[in-house]
Amino acid sequence: MKSIRFVALGGVLALGLAACSGGGAGSGGAEGGTDAEPSDLTIGVAMPTETSERWIADGDAVKSQLEEAGYTVDLQYAADDIPTQAQQIDQMITKGADLLIVASIDGTALANQLQAAADQGIPVIAYDRLIRDTENVDFYVTFDNYNVGVQQATSLLVGLGILDAEGNEAGATGPFNIELFAGSLDDNNAHFFFQGAMDTLQPYIDNGTLVVKSGQTEIEQVATLRWLQETAQKRMEDLLTSTYAGGDKVDGVLSPYDGISRGIITALQNAGYGDSIEAGLPIVTGQDAEIASVKLINDGVQFSTIFKDTRKLAEQAVVSAQAFLDGEEPEANNTEDYDNGVKVVPSYLLESDIVYADNIQSLLIDSGYWTEEEVAAGQAD
Ligand code: BGC
């Protein structure tokens, strides 16, 4: 048992705490470990995929910040394959992880692994994506995902001239043809993003300013399994054939993620919409401030993205991990919104920003997230 090792390291005080903690589900089972040296503690970090830059940045930031705090880190990527991620987490537990930080692929697929973690008193922090249908998740660090959706929709309204950058009505009344895309249905975040976006767009759909020409407005109709660029490109191509072949034009596309945005833009460019917004491309939104998309925004091709500073999320994950390993509860700033189907998971939410061409400098370059050279090149150094 984990707690026994901690007791051995932690002396009499730890003995008392460990005896009380029992190491049960959701108890933050490392409570006896207050006196263990960080270097004796291993933190398993499970990330979904390396095909999207944001997760590489997250993995790097979490690993380096944990190592700076003295912990040993076991960082694994699962190539977006659910069984691979389950196996990686099993191995982390077998190898003696003291705490797990998990960005899940399918938020409902890890119940067995997390039961094993709970049985051994290993605290689990859900990273960015909520883990669902289990009581064995102790804390959740993420962004205000509903607000990300609001921001995506707001930027679409700004791009179409319906709102100004301050969010005031700017005069355009359309009607504008738009299409909607959502993320992967097995990712809890996809639902929050889409809900926030639709709550923002619905009044303009209701009053006729916006027209979803395909009629596809349900998340099940517009979702993109695994958030894949190619899947989004294919759906956009199909929409252009099915709905716009008669000469109607697409004016705007709600896209929940930069990879999806690039697939949409490629389909539109191939269909003759031009190479830039000025030349006829619709307003396309995004998320993550991936470098390839930041360049497209800088070049007037993609209209916007949402910047979620992964360095800050990593920092929050590290602070929360430290709290558990010190036998404390991490500080939550939201204890209402993230019901995982079994319980409301105490959460720490961070804020995000809308990126347009004119604030790339202040949001992304001045903060050191990307350099000017990277933005110009469209790739990370
Ligand atoms: C994350 C987004 C990301 C998406 C695709 C979501 O869970 O919150 O930032 O764009 O996954 O990787």
UniProtKB/TrEMBL annotation:
UniProt keyword Transmembrane, yes or no: no
Keywords: Signal
Classification via Gene3D superfamilies: 3.40.50.2300
Stretch forming the signal peptide: 1-25
Domain Periplasmic binding protein: 43-329
Main subcellular localisation: other
GO molecular function, one term: carbohydrate binding
GO cellular component terms listed in the entry, alphabetical order: outer membrane-bounded periplasmic space
Domain of life: Bacteria
Location within or outside the cell: Cell envelope
Descriptive protein name: Sugar ABC transporter substrate-binding protein
Organism: Cellulomonas pakistanensis
